[in-house]
């Protein structure tokens, strides 16, 4: 679906201006890492780019068209080509692990359980999953829930993958598995946008880093270039 253009995004919450004419460009197949201090709006911007949240003003252009003027079917198509890994996994608590993983396929394609299992099994195998899929998310560890969330986001082979601080509170083994998946997706040429402040996850694989501060992307560019920046905020976030 091509390059993502952010043009003059404005978003307010009450009297607070979170984004103030924010603009950025994310190339097709690029791994883009968004950095910013806590409360700067990183997760909110990620949801805006993915079409989960509408701003007060501005455009996110994907495929040559502003997604906020998409028809219902066009927005549905965008979501079919996207995967979103939420910070807290965002699994549905009253559904089993399998039902959480199957929901996308049942909603969009009406697949039966056998077809879903055939699709997700290679991904389960890749992380060494051996737990009962009939269990509820509440029985899993934080790391296990994140792995399920990652599999849910990527098993349908999306073009865009949005990562919202997935490495928070992960143990080293789960971090290793998540990094392996991230690297594999990068090699496949997925367009990925990662929100993180954890230098162990994703950041070493960034093609481009954006610095979100006081409602704007104050700097963006190749990691090697930003490490030479004179901007105090940029230097602080990359240190």
Keyword list:
alpha/beta; 239 residues; Rossmann fold
How would you describe this structure to a colleague?
It is a single chain. The strands form 2 sheets. The chain has a 6-stranded mixed β-sheet, sandwiched between helices. The chain has helices at 42-49, 72-80, 97-109, 113-126, 142-154, 172-187, 223-226, 232-238; strands at 4-13, 16-26, 31-36, 57-62, 65-66, 82-85, 160-164, 191-195, 208-213, 216-221. It is built from 8 helices and 10 strands. The protein is an alpha/beta fold and 239 residues long. It is globular, with a radius of gyration of 18 Å. It has one domain: Rossmann fold (3-Layer(aba) Sandwich). It starts with a strand and ends with a helix.
Please give a quick description of this structure:
Helix content is 35%, strand content 26%.
The overall number of domains is 1
Report Rg: 18 Å
- Which sequence of strands runs across the widest sheet? 6-7-8-3-9-10
H/E element order: EEEHEEHEHHHEHEEEHH
Percent helix, as a range, is 25-40%
For the terminal residues, how far apart are their CA atoms?
34 Å
Give me the secondary-structure category.
alpha/beta
Describe how the helices and strands are arranged.
Elements: E1 4-13, E2 16-26, E3 31-36, H1 42-49, E4 57-62, E5 65-66, H2 72-80, E6 82-85, H3 97-109, H4 113-126, H5 142-154, E7 160-164, H6 172-187, E8 191-195, E9 208-213, E10 216-221, H7 223-226, H8 232-238
Helix pairs in contact: 3-4, 3-5, 5-6
